[in-house]
Amino acid sequence: MRASRGRGKTLRWGWLDVVLLGLIVLVGLYLWRRAAAEVFYRWDWSVVPEYLVYQNPETGDWRANLLMHGIYATLRLAFWGTLIALIIGVVMGCCRVSRNLFLRLVSRTYVEATRNIPPLVIIFVVYFFVSSQIMPLLGIADWVRHTEGALRTVIEVSFGPTALIENFLSGLLVLAAFEAAYFTEIIRAGIQSVEKGQWEAGDSIGLSRFKVMRYVIMPQAIQRTIPPLAGQLISLVKDSSMVSLISVQDLTYSGTQVAISTRKIFEIWIFIAVVYFVICFSLSLVSRWLERRMGRGLQ
Amino acid sequence: MIRLENVNKWFGDFQALKDINFTVGQGERVVVCGPSGSGKSTMIRCINRLEEHESGRVIVDGIELNEDTKNIAAVRLEVGMVFQQFNLFPHLTVIENCTLGPIQARHMSRDEAESLAMKLLERVQIPEQALKYPSQLSGGQQQRVAIARALCMEPKVMLFDEPTSALDPEMIKEVLDAMIALAESGMTMVVVTHEMGFARTVADEMVFMDNGRIIESAPPDAFFSAPKSDRTKLFLSQILSH
Question: Residue A150 is part of a domain; what is its CATH number?
Fold first, then answer.
């Protein structure tokens, strides 16, 4: 039995495949029957749309509800987290290969300290310091409270409700600082994978070391490291769920709240899992497209 | 133009250059030959500080090469280099490869740099490849782009480190032709190569190195017909037998 699948690749179904598939279906059906019979749980999927959006009964406007706000917060964490972590990663990555001993030591220490402690522990340790000491120092909450109009809208779209902004920023900075250590190592490996001849060619046409890095080495390093960078970005999105434990109101946090109050645990958590999956899978598709597009110059 | 005085260099315990005394006058074409491991590449890489000499002096166009980065930068603007492995920038088009140096190191405007690059690509006979990427070109074309790229910096001296050694035989001629044309325009050149036919055509001086030392140095006629040292004779007999 053959089924062809475009491009000349054929799917061949042997007897073993049929047997295994049959076994899996049988086991699945059995578990489903047992679950339906014995697990006492009333499914009610209506809680999902109910907490996603709600309609103001008087004006008929659709507004975002808790879960939707959570999705927005997670997307913001993903976007800003990646941006900040990439910038730190590029700078630290260059420091790791610098000729300056001090820069090498600082970046190495940062990487080793961050990579050898569990993320949750780092989040707890750093977050309380950042949010209780640094944030009040910067006076961001006060400053934001006094903004108006277009600026305020931009801030709210980018960072979420102004009342929660200090909390959000603290969580964001901790997340970014943590993930940046991994970005650093990826970029460092990328830089070191560019052959020495590229440095020599850059040097010999009179470019300063900084300019060789900026125009010759870094573009090649980044292009090579797009797959692991994308993988790390997806890790970032998944790790962002941990900031829910420090009360940043992301999707996981909102989900916990709704699940507890409605007691529809399975529906809510399955929904949340699906949302994270959609976000992460879309990122991996974008990364594959980016890889193809940037690879044209460097067959 | 170029002066190496009593230059020595070690790689760990291995001495790669032993009391090198080497001069190149303006407009001279010097071909350096010798068995592999003789230090030829190391010597010319000391001229643009891709290698650091450990004793002695290296002076290029009156500028002494030492720890001072300003000197190194100044020398590198005057010395162009063509590598055995081409070392073109794969993420840039041919013309971007050529204009990167002039724009970033000589602070030329993009238009000036591009017209200079096109002029030089015409000189090496590949102007139509300007918008292609290096991976789309043959080896001979890539090396000619490398020559154009080095020439875009308008150097006073051109160094060639075995420019044809990584090429298929049928592409060697196009690169050598470009180098001969360059020589005829009066450029000062130091070429490390095994191409003796080219050497005979172009060189003012032949230099033979073995084991880190300069064994013999003479104009091509004298060098090929009446080599003085036994090691030179041995080398020539091996290399000229085909």
Answer: 1.10.3720.10
Total domain count for chain A? 2
In this prediction the pTM is: 0.81
A11, A67: one domain: no
Q: Please give the residue range of the domain that contains residue A79.
A: 47-298
Looking at the structure, tell me whether residues A270 and A133 fall in a common domain: yes
pLDDT at A4: 47
Same domain, A22 and A132: no
State yes or no: pLDDT of B175 exceeds 70. Answer: yes
Judged against a pLDDT cut of 60, whether residue A232 lies above it is answered with yes
- DSSP string computed for B189-202: EEEE-S-HHHHHHH
User: Same domain, yes or no, for A63 and A17?
Assistant: no
Q: Which pLDDT score is estimated for A7?
A: 55
Residues of A in contact with B110 (CB under 8 A): none
A157-to-A184, A223, A294, B199 alpha-carbon distances in Å = 29, 31, 31, 70
Measured N-to-C along each axis, helices B94-104 and B110-123 cross at an angle, to the nearest 10 degrees, of: 130
| Domain shared by A91 and A33, yes or no | no
* Min Cα separation B82/chain A (Å): 8
Q: Does A297 touch chain B (CB under 8 A)?
A: yes
Per-residue pLDDT tens for A237-295?
Answer: 999 999 888 888 888 998 898 888 888 888 888 889 999 999 999 988 988 888 787 66
A256 touching B (Cβ < 8 Å): no
For β-strands B2-11 and A9-12, DSSP reports them as: unpaired
Lowest-confidence pick of A206-220, B116-130, B223-237 = B223-237
Residues A197-218: what's their mean pLDDT? 92
Distance between CA atoms of residues A262 and A246, nearest Å: 22
Partners of B29 in beta bridges: B189
B87 interfaces chain A, CB cutoff of 8 Å: yes
Domain shared by A19 and A143, yes or no = no
In a shared domain, residues A114 and A251: yes
